[in-house]
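Section 5.1 Outputs to date
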Amino acid sequence: MAQKIKNTEIKRKLNLKNDIIFKAFFSRKGNEKYLIDFLNAILKIEITSIQVKEEVNLEQLSTTEKGGRLDIQAILNDGMIVNIEMQMRNLNNIEQRDDIYEAKTISRHFPRGEDYERAEEIVSIYILNYNLFGFNEYILDTIKVLNKHRDYQVNSISKEYYIQLPKFRESNPDMNDKLNQWLAIIDDQDRGKIEMAKSKNKIIKEAEVEIKYFTADEEARYLADLRDMWESDRTTELNHATRLGLEQGKKEKQIEIAKKMLEKNKDIEEIMELTELTKEEIENLQ
């Protein structure tokens, strides 16, 4: 199967919305300046140093690395921990997964017996290729407040950002804003926005060249294709299970109706016509 995939010419265009490409590109040694510029745009802080945790090289990626893992985790300025995940489709669990990810991050990085005041801030960034919230904004961030005093912000070490690409796509963003420039190149849908982003941000211009070179790599394309094949297989399995469930529910309803009609001594032919059950199925119910 692997040889077959490698020998097949792949015409589709790869971009950063593919989580394999996103992870490998931003965690690649030498690409730190792109990740720093992107995070500067979101966090609005000066990043003096960055350490990408568990750096992933192409040869380390495999078909087992598909879901349930953070795409990127980085430590900024020797302290702040940033989790970043690219999510292509809605699995209806992103908020619950965020709680798990943050809890695991805290337990991993907070030493036993340490002073709680020394706990580092954790920021989670979710880039979504679907709309999660019904609000108009395409970027939403969280704060923790008291229920009866919403103006009082509780001191919390965790914060989340949700970026909804479809809403960005439909908007008329200010392309002077660095984050919008990065979203344009990540979304890779509007050539006008991309060209404007490149004209205003030298790093964006360099990043596009690097992305084109990176996604032309045979191994990168192969791994991205494996990822897409897995997604297609998973979608097919879920749809098949849904169809089976619907068919089973319909059958149960037909049998329930047939039993009630038999209790009222209705003719088998009449029951067959109404329920679409066979004569043998109805006789077995008798």
